[in-house]
């Protein structure tokens, strides 16, 4: 199918504008349009996956149109093994968001669906742009719908949270833009391939790396620029939290793999300990922080930061492996792990936020203390919640295990201590997640509100069941995912290890 | 002299006729037919634009009228922009003027004379013409600021504007006289030809006064004091006027005077402008945060934007000037819309100029809120809106000319700026309306124009290529 990527980007955007045009009064039709568009986008990722050539690292499904001739900027799209899984994840996660909002969102529903659909298109754009200017265009444009989602449908402190979210990400991105323009002035165009191939001195690389680090570290988010995330998650509506955790955070990881490593390999090598240290701090310190949270969403938000620490650890530990063993053997595993962890965390954190949403819709509280013994009144829901919680702790057989395991193995090659510290997450993650489950799901019925709970309705069941299937599928049989990524990861490793000096 | 030697000046010639016609019609139509003058003015502007398109275009640079007047592509395009901007500004203003009881013919005549000043300035080839344009524009605008004669605030700000403006004009004249004394000519290209080599202290002294005057006119810190007071004190329709069309003229002033006339001293004035630009960016953005009046906030936002325009000149290259031109045009487009929103939100006895008046605007008028949101995101520099490209272009020319620190400061300041634009969106979309406020204006034509204005901000953001190319072509 020609222009498949363009269709994937603009179909949801167009549908979003359509829902907006239908307005709140005809929201019945609007809802079905939104669902149809989300499902159609998901369906279109099937030919994308099946038509993807898993033997090459070259960009596939390329499209190129002149966009701004003056800047040599093109509307250029193309995907490789890193972008494909993330695009599928984006299309996959938008469907539950649309379904979950069906009866829950009462204020301005048309705009709610429109914001999510437009954001879906823009996020797919981020993952498929092969021109840095186009990438930045999508990357920034995406802030607008998210800003509105948190600000309009969020909780009591939504204004503070959304402005903080916007300004943090904007601050990071602006410096990335400055770095991109600097490279454009030197190289003459914005093609990501050109930027990856251009020679840069160590000093230039250092500055570029730091500018990128600022942008991507805010997005991931890494310690110490993570403070916007708990606020944003707590205040965002369920759908906003899901997209934020499942997709938006992945853009930071994607940025490291697509920009930082290949464009500034020497600076990455030089400053890898900085990133590794921050990742380990995220894994351990934020794990402890998660332990003491009273608010379910906040707990999952902190757990997200800890889990995303594995992504950055896996991406940068490759340099330590080369340093320690003198060969790249096993370094690919770090990158593999980072990618699988991104996909897996997208599914699990999305699912957990949806679980919290299910409870919140019934009780209107996110406080752990307001729950207890949910299993007595909602057995089916409890089963799902426990499954996702276990996946979050990295139980073998779930997707959570694969990514963390790969990263820990790779860290072992670099140093015992990296692996030991990273592996602490297995304990910490189990502590905060299982304790959450214990307090919310198990035990005796805590209060009349819990006693009055009704189990999942068919809509919620479909949403959680589809996510459960995905979590288990990636956990039991990750081979197809790894196979799609393999040539690209190999190519990326070569780029990241090579010197540009 | 044949028609062809006058044709490039058709815009000015037509405008003089139009001014006389509008003035006379207004006198004879009197109080009974109030609607005639506005319609006639818009018609005159449309016809003037048509005539300029038809006859005014010149292929190459032509110097006319004994070297006083320069006809080139840039002037031609800026005049068309002037026609358009003034027409839209007057269109937005009409119901506001009616509600205030100041819908008088003189307002329209003064708008036209100000436009004539802009045209003279844009086409100036000599210091004399330049000064003529500056004064014609300034005097018209002083009167417009004081137009609501019963309002003490307006009178006060007009007084302030006039006194400070007179000092700036004095500085300009003094600087020009020094340069004239050293170069021995008033003609800008000849000044450029004669003043080459390392500049003498006299030239630098003259240059300093000229830069001060330009900075004052643009509203660059520390010569910005008049701007917030005038923006806040003037009737909103006048704020709209002075916030838009004259910016084009003052861009032309800086370009003709500094980039063309004093091209040899680029190293000197670009350093001066760099200092001004940094101050302007910092003061504009930081002070805007604490404002409670939307007009005043937009005034500081104007100052911040002027900082970016000045940065384009700091680069000191044709690329830089074309970036500044692009930024100016984009800024004018966005300012037109933002003040247009204030005009539409206002009604009889309700100025709608405090920020809190915009609480819950979405519930009262979704279309107006959407337009304002687009405009605010654009000024903040968020894609897919055109303001993003304007900022990007400035960053780019700064990199090309090697101004690392200016890039960093400008980038940091755009983040600071984003905050107060977001606050407006927050008020409109996230807050509930405070009490009962009068309804917004419902006039379909004006709303359509505002809608198109916002749409242009989006479309030029999605496809920025043509306007970027145009700006580059006009400068080279």
Overview of this protein structure:
- Chain A is mainly alpha-helical and 501 residues long.
- Chain A has helices spanning 4-22, 27-50, 83-100, 109-128, 132-141, 143-153, 158-187, 192-197, 202-219, 228-235, 238-263, 265-270, 272-291, 296-325, 331-363, 374-377, 379-393, 399-414, 416-440, 448-451, 458-476, 479-497; strands at 60-68, 73-79.
- Chain B is 77% helix and 1% strand.
- A two-stranded antiparallel ribbon of chain B has the order 1-2.
- Chain B is globular, with a radius of gyration of 21 Å.
- The longest helix of chain B has 32 residues, at 152-183.
Number of strands of chain A: 2
Structural class of chain B: mainly alpha
Overall pLDDT level of chain B: 91
Multimer state:
heterodimer
Structure summary:
The complex is a heterodimer of chains A (501) and B (476). Chain A is mostly helical and 501 residues long. Chain A has helices at residues 4-22, 27-50, 83-100, 109-128, 132-141, 143-153, 158-187, 192-197, 202-219, 228-235, 238-263, 265-270, 272-291, 296-325, 331-363, 374-377, 379-393, 399-414, 416-440, 448-451, 458-476, 479-497; strands spanning 60-68, 73-79.
Topology of this structure?
The complex is a heterodimer of chains A (501) and B (476).
Chain A: H1 4-22, H2 27-50, E1 60-68, E2 73-79, H3 83-100, H4 109-128, H5 132-141, H6 143-153, H7 158-187, H8 192-197, H9 202-219, H10 228-235, H11 238-263, H12 265-270, H13 272-291, H14 296-325, H15 331-363, H16 374-377, H17 379-393, H18 399-414, H19 416-440, H20 448-451, H21 458-476, H22 479-497
Chain B: H1 3-6, H2 10-29, H3 36-56, E1 62-64, E2 69-71, H4 73-100, H5 105-122, H6 127-145, H7 152-183, H8 188-194, H9 201-218, H10 226-233, H11 236-243, H12 245-261, H13 266-289, H14 294-315, H15 318-345, H16 361-364, H17 366-380, H18 386-400, H19 404-430, H20 444-462, H21 465-475
Antiparallel strand pairs in B: 1-2
Helix pairs in contact in B: 2-3, 2-5, 3-4, 4-5, 4-11, 4-12, 4-15, 5-6, 5-12, 6-7, 6-12, 7-9, 7-10, 8-12, 9-12, 9-13, 10-11, 10-14, 11-15, 12-15, 13-14, 13-19, 14-15, 14-18, 14-19, 15-17, 15-18, 15-20, 15-21, 17-19, 17-20, 18-20
